[in-house]
# Entry
Amino acid sequence: MSDSPKETTTVQLPAATKSVKRSTVFWWVSVPVSFLLIVGLIAARFLFTIPGNMQGGQYIGSQLQQATPFSVSQAIASGGLLSPSGSVVNGATPYPTGIVSGYPDPRVESSYIQQLIASDGNPSKVIVVSIAGQFLQAYDHGKLVNWTYVTTGRPGMDTPTGFFNVQFELSPILFYPISTNPSSPDFGYLTKAQYGLDFDAGGYFIHDAWWRTIYGPPNASFHWDPGRGEYQVGSHGCVNTPLQMMAWLYLWTPVGTPVIVF
# Structure
């Protein structure tokens, strides 16, 4: 009888040990597997879901690589960067701009522009900005591949004209005001833009402008901005460009690309 407990113990101990080992093995296997599964789900979301603040840039960029002329209205019709509420804070243009009569047509490869490009050595890529037409065109090997209306410098703060090159590119970019005095003509706020192409010394950029919802002539002068619900004037000399176009232009333009402003 004295051996029975020993025999029972002897039989039960291995069983208990096996149970502990199985539980331990199960824990060491299940926890890492669960962790890897969670990490995989998180990674899949970032890999296959375009972040909200990049949807417009990636979408527009992939669409416009087909080298078809681009307009603000086309961008909006195809989705653009408009939020469901119609917010304009992200730089979208909720008011499509048709071709403005009485001004140079931004869709046309004019002979004068071709002459300007030829005088600049017929570069493979070139950005052309028309002050009179308030538009920007992108040429690839002499062919117009993209265009948009823009807003250039206000009277007294004119956008410089001539032959330039993209000196550097920034994304994002912060603009510091010349003056913080509201009574000064140089008054401004610390302003962030998503994309900036510097083309002339003194801080002259081609960049997006979230505070504008309408571009094109004659908006470099005093005008009503329907999306903002306020009166505005032109830039401090930069070339304000719709965000959709800037997203495309930033990817399309290498440093050194010629910029012709006339």
Remarks:
- The chain has two domains: 1-49, 54-261.
- Residues 1-22, 41-94 have pLDDT under 50 and may be disordered.
- The longest strand covers residues 143-149.
- The CA atoms of residues 118 and 142 lie 9 Å apart.
